[in-house]
Amino acid sequence: MLRTQSLQFSYQDSKNETLSFPDITIGPKQGLLILGPSGVGKTTLLHLLAGLLPAQSGDIFVANTHLNTLSRKQLDKFRGQHIGLIFQRSYFIKSLSLIENLSLRERISKTKNDRYRKEQLIMQLGLSDLQNKKVYELSEGQQQRLSIALGVIHKPKILLADEPTSNLDDVNCEKVISLLKKEAEICKSNLVIITHDQRVKSHFDNHIIL
Ligand SMILES: Nc1ncnc2c1ncn2[C@@H]1O[C@H](COP(=O)(O)OP(=O)(O)OP(=O)(O)O)[C@@H](O)[C@H]1O
Prior knowledge:
alpha/beta, Rossmann fold, 7 helices, ATP hydrolysis activity, ABC_transpr_LolD-like, ATP binding, transmembrane transporter activity
């Protein structure tokens, strides 16, 4: 479940320009696509939903937790355990292998070390041959697919993805979208995607345009 109300945000150095966002309500297991032209505030909205930026005003509820009421420490814990993030720029340790990065993510989110799940995810993303390679040895597209595995490994309540298919060819775009949808279904989580990628639109009924 995800719900926002009267959400507004302004960056300190943005000459008082305030970004206002439409209210969002999506029920259990529903997906949502966030569309809009460059600069309108899509990434900012995703960062607000992840609790990475504090709302200037308005409310955000993720899985019945009111994010605005959490302290920074509680928010970090909540994000680590219940939010899956897939960003354009990924955060992994490039000197570790794919499997080691996934194990680290499990430890951070306090989920059990599940070798089978890691290998399954890596296989579904077409990375099996590379699982013991260091991340710096991967192409950009392969790193993007790894970032998806890192986003879902801990079975989050909400999965937030910023342009997850932008560097992928048609075959891998299809694979990634169906993997994200399948994982969201398995984890009973909401899948929220920001994209310019026209190929993704047909996969979702629920859209908002900023
Ligand atoms: N750290 C920042 N400091 C000041 N202004 C910012 C900052 N980050 C973004 N902005 C401004 O806030 C507005 C929204 O930016 P945001 O990145 O959320 O847009 P977007 O819709 O995701 O754009 P794109 O599709 O190009 O990625 C833009 O006008 C941008 O210039």
